[in-house]
Amino acid sequence: MTIEVNTPTLSPLSTDARSLRPLLEWLARRAEPVVISLGAILAGLALFSLFILVVGKSPADLFRLMYTGGFGSWFSIQNSLSRAAPLLLTALCVALPARLGLVVIGGEGAVVLGGVAAAAIALPLTASVSPIVVIPLMAIAGMIAGGIWIGLAGVLRHYRGVNETIASLLLAYIAIALMNHFIEGPLRDPASLNKPSTAPLPAEYMLGNIPGMDVNWGLVIGIVACIIAWVLIEATSFGFAARIAGGNVRAAQIQGLPVGRLIVGFTALAGSFAGLAGMVEVAAVQGSANASLAAGYGYTGILVAFLARHNPLAIIPVAILLGGIDASGGLIQRRMGLPDATVLVLQGTLFVVILLCETFYGRFKIFNPDLWKSPGLRSNLSEGTA
Amino acid sequence: MTKLLPMNRRSFLQTTASGAAALGLAPSLFSTPAAAQAALTVGFIYVGPKDDYGYNQAHAEGAAVIKAMSGVTVVEEENVPETVDVQKTMESMINLDGASLVFPTSFGYFDPHMLEMAKKYPDVQFRHCGGLWKEGVNPMNTGSYFGYIGQGQYLNGITAGYASKSKKIGFVAAKPIPQVLQNINSFLLGARSVDPAITCQVIFTGEWSLAVKEAEATNALIDQGADVITCHVDSPKVVVETAAGRGAFVCGYHANQSPLAPEKYLTGAEWAWGNVYTKFVTEAQASTPLGNFVRGGLKDGFVKMSPLGPGVSEEARKKFDATLAEMMAGSFSVFKGPIKDNKGGDAVTAGQTFAEDAIELESMAYLVEGVVGSTS
User: Fold this and answer.
1) pTM (predicted TM-score)
2) How many Å is the Cα radius of gyration of chain A?
């Protein structure tokens, strides 16, 4: 395949244009991931339209419904944001270790244990302690439980050489079994006959909604967490060290970087974000820990993180997009009579196309910052087409 | 297919400006009482696929009955998890489709999800499958319906008792909760009414829907000599196909699974939700108050039996029909003392009889003598 690239006329540039050069250079650097991702999404939607045509429905109707259901009204927007909230945190559980070159897919385990730990710590305190103390305590308990769980995958990886992908996935199964043990055994509210749960949290310990919105505080917590994670990776020496170790672990070791501590620290931090998602699920939605905690947020988080290319800031729009696709899924079922799997096919198509488009990075000359430098400063601008 | 909503910027701005609860919605679709009378939109929400040959299919078959009624529009959504998702699905049905009667059918949808929405939309009626509604505690625009299906499992047990050669039958169960325990005990008691030497091995999978473990459990039961299998999981499909594939007889649950194993299917205890939904919708259309706590068994048309399969002997058919007739007359009790539990204690003492709607049965925590297995 030949890719047509419009090579802009570079010289002679007027003085005015020359002052634009740093801006153009910056734009070229930043535009590449955005343009390629958007292009991939468009290509994915086009491919998905073919599926819809094959089953004899109109893609135009479908996309219009998706817009109505996901973003077409204030109700739909809040619907999408509510669904996006837990994904922000579970996506971080994948994105942070990914910067170290680790593929962690067991966030679901951290979510359920985080939820159980949060409920467990609040139970004995019922009604006697101020919510200002209890809610942060629940968050800390959830983060510690999730952090230990995914941190364990990091420990196994670094000290025993166990593949972290498989370890974290298997640990998720163990976590779900542990959750079932606790909510059907020691922590079970005897009144929860046919749906084993912990005792319900008193209303004052619940997180509630963001004022003026029908979306719970989980959204704010998730966005703040994404920003913190971005600052950590992009603006601290800890994050810089992690990126080096992710790029080349040997080089990092030769530099004397504490690779082991980085791996355990990053996996534990990642797990604590997912554990926090479990706490929010208990404190803002369910009101108790029960089997509904294992709702698949940990697994959808993998999709979000990969689509966001493990950039914590990009996770925010991607999670909202997926929340919107989820929100519109219901409308598609109800209005078009298409099965629930329709939106899963769309998500899967987008996932594959975006991964395939990774190969386009660095292949469009227009995104090369060198192209925009003044001729004297230009380094080895390669010739030829992709 | 219903026509697409006329959604444009003007109607959006209008509704936003007026601060209406249902945004982005054409005014004609607001569910005013007058509109609800003329055309009723009913929402059904399922936790799994609606063609699962089980729990969800039973409800979807009920919804299909409603669809045929005049003046009724049915909107359905499947695979909705018991999280904020189901709350938003209910809201979306109310706001975007104008639903004024909603049936969230999974047990876990009740608290907090349906209760939250009922508080927020007091003009919408919510009816939940599972029997959790309490007078004075839960709002009057909510309610519960449920069926007594234990007698159906007793009838399953009768056909199993006649069909079993090894005198060992098996039960694949999801969780050791009262509803499931009552089904296991009823199945064994039905079989023991044929032959008191019969034992029933039970395996709990721990999850409502976990195909791999259900197949493993079925195989393990058959390996240990069981030759009739039944189950209580969301979708009996895997259990029925696995058991029939190994040559064992099967009794169904939730819905009719005979198409999956026409030769080996004896009978099955099925829900008859179509009758229940018809009742609710008729009440809603007539603007009479909907029942808040609605329950019934075989004789009330809440539960039905699958047609008897070719594996059921003439003798078995006679006993099945006689017992069914007693149940339909309301004079039959499955739990009639003395019954021992499988740890040697008294489950039901001599002289004690529990009718199918007895409150004591709803907190059942034992397995009766003859059931091999443990609740913990």
Assistant:
1) 0.83
2) 23
